[in-house]
Amino acid sequence: MGHSNETSPLLPQKHPLPSKELQLKFPLGLVSESVRPYLELIRLEKPTGTILMFWPFAWGLTMAAYKINLPLEEYGNDLAKCVVGAFIMRSSACTINDIFDRKMDAGVERTKNRPLASGRISVLAATIYLMVQYLIGTLFFYFTVDGLALWVALFQLIPIFAIYPLLKRVTYWPQAWLGFAMNFGFVTAWVSSTGGIDLPLLGTAMLGCWCWTMLYDTIYACQDIKDDVKMGVHSTAILFGSWIKPLLMGCAAIFATTLGVAGYLNSQGLPFFIVSVVGTCLHLIWQFMTVNLEEPASCWRNFNRNGHLGWIIWGGLMIDYVLSLEIIQSRF
């Protein structure tokens, strides 16, 4: 997703930094310097992107589990698969993003020390690394999902994220494509669990998730507006200009509304509407009250907070799901 937040601690010796800034984020300090750039390339030390990738998987799975009364043990196994799938998706997405963006990243202060931009990994090595990730991802989904769900997962894994970095060069709407790419896990999880496609529900859920990604990734892109303009990188953060906050509030309102509509279409219970929908509304209001779009550190904090928001939505869904299982068990 665009550019990562923090510069790499592996800076050239001619630019020494204070020891505090040289401290390596976990788990980078556990591996050798030759291995470390490959972990940085997939942003292993920055899990927020994986978390944001995971939540649509988890929401889609939990709504499907509630719908079909999926046994709790089976749900737990599927949720673990969602974690692995989200990690693979995000890792390969970061790798291909950095391959395409290496020259742009070199001209942006926050990203100039990424492995490819700084020359610590060659393009050939990164490409081989990406192919290995694609192979692992393909095998993982082949053995964990089947039928339509398999093709949906592979579609998200390879072509969707390969297109995203190219769009930054030709349109101010790369976040719009990312909104589609980041949230396709909802469809994968739903189809894998139910075996079918509920167009009204999936369409509503995807619209809401799309608006959510537009919200957090536009704020994320605000960190680099000056450098992005200089390097010719396009984003909705630049396009929206002085209208950015009202437009993002509109995205937030649509996200909260479609969340409620999706819950209605899935016949969710009261806990979902109280915890997930109302909780999301309150969290979004808090976000807009606290974020400063002109301060990169504030934009980064807000980006992380959207990862936290996922817990609220999943919490309401989970309460509904568990209560529905208890009701079924009490009848037999």
Explain what the structure shows.
The protein has 332 residues and is mostly helical. It is 72% helix and 0% strand. The chain is built from 14 helices and no strands. The chain has helices spanning 19-22, 36-41, 48-68, 72-106, 123-144, 148-167, 174-182, 185-194, 199-221, 225-231, 236-240, 244-265, 270-290, 296-330. α12 packs antiparallel against α13 (270-290). It is globular and about 60 Å long.
Topology (elements, then pairings):
Layout: H1 19-22, H2 36-41, H3 48-68, H4 72-106, H5 123-144, H6 148-167, H7 174-182, H8 185-194, H9 199-221, H10 225-231, H11 236-240, H12 244-265, H13 270-290, H14 296-330
What structural category arises from helix and sheet content?
mainly alpha
* Main beta-sheet strand count, sense and barrel state: none
| Oligomerization status of the protein chains | single chain
Shape: globular
- Stretches where pLDDT is under 50 for at least 5 consecutive residues are 1-22
Total strand count, please? Answer: 0
Mean pLDDT: 91
H/I helix tally = 14
Separation of termini?
A: 48 Å
Give the proportion of residues in helices.
Answer: over 70%
Measured by DSSP, the beta-strand proportion falls in: under 5%
C-alpha-based Rg, rounded: 20 Å
Element order: H for helix, E for strand = HHHHHHHHHHHHHH
